[in-house]
Amino acid sequence: YERIGATRRAIGFDFLGFGKSDRPPIDDAVVLYTNLLGGLLTTLDIDRASFVGHGLGAAVAVRFASEYPERVDRLVLSAIPAVDRLTEAEMATAMERWTGEVLVGLDRAGRRAWYQALAAGWNDLLEAELQLREELAHCVAYRAWARSVEDAMTSLLHHPVGHRLARITAPTLIIWGADDPVVSP
Q1: What's the pLDDT tens digit per position in 43-78?
Q2: What are the backbone dihedrals phi and psi of residue 144, each rounded to the nearest 5 degrees, phi first?
Q3: Could you tell me the pTM of the whole model?
Q4: CA-to-CA dists, residue 23 to 37, 44, 97, 104, 177, angstroms
Q5: How far apart are CA 62 and CA 68, in angstroms?
Q6: Phi, psi dihedral angles at 44 (to 5 degrees)
Q7: SS3 of 105, please?
Q8: Are 59 and 33 spatial neighbours (Cβ–Cβ below 8 Å)?
Q9: Burial of 153 per CB tally in 10 Å (0-12, 13-18, 19+)
Q10: Which residue among 8, 16, 35, 153 is buried most deeply as judged by most CB within 10 Å?
Q11: Beta carbons within 10 angstroms of residue 10's beta carbon
Q12: Closest CA to 142 of 44, 23, 40
């Protein structure tokens, strides 16, 4: 935000249950986040904006841009999950890794292995993120975060965005790591 905000207005949208927001009951995260994004723009009196989204944020940006193309100036999308619909077996395998109970049940070594499996290359920034998660794992809020992760993944898997890509009219930059271990290009 600091880099973008130096020359443009930059707003960070904190998905419910992630970051510093509370987690109310969520029936369908991707649909809810898309609607909340539209409401945020309306509340801030922003008719048209550019969006940068990674992972879940990219899926929400794709959905928003396909439903409200007149409100999207440009897109930058990174590691878009759930582009294609998965088979039931693939969905079950994906969900095994992302359930809240699995995340809550990990010990220190398990959390390290889980996070390292999400990155093609480990570095100091990822080590710092892991240390933050280590601290959070011992807080009451960790269980709510883990449920938010599960809800978001379930919603993503039930709302693949591949069919929406052709409806996007805004100039779009897609960034994807060739060795992305979570979502293969």
Answers
A1: 999 999 999 998 889 999 999 999 999 999 999 999
A2: -65, -40
A3: 0.80
A4: 16, 23, 21, 16, 30
A5: 10
A6: -85, 5
A7: helix
A8: no
A9: buried
A10: 153
A11: 13
A12: 23
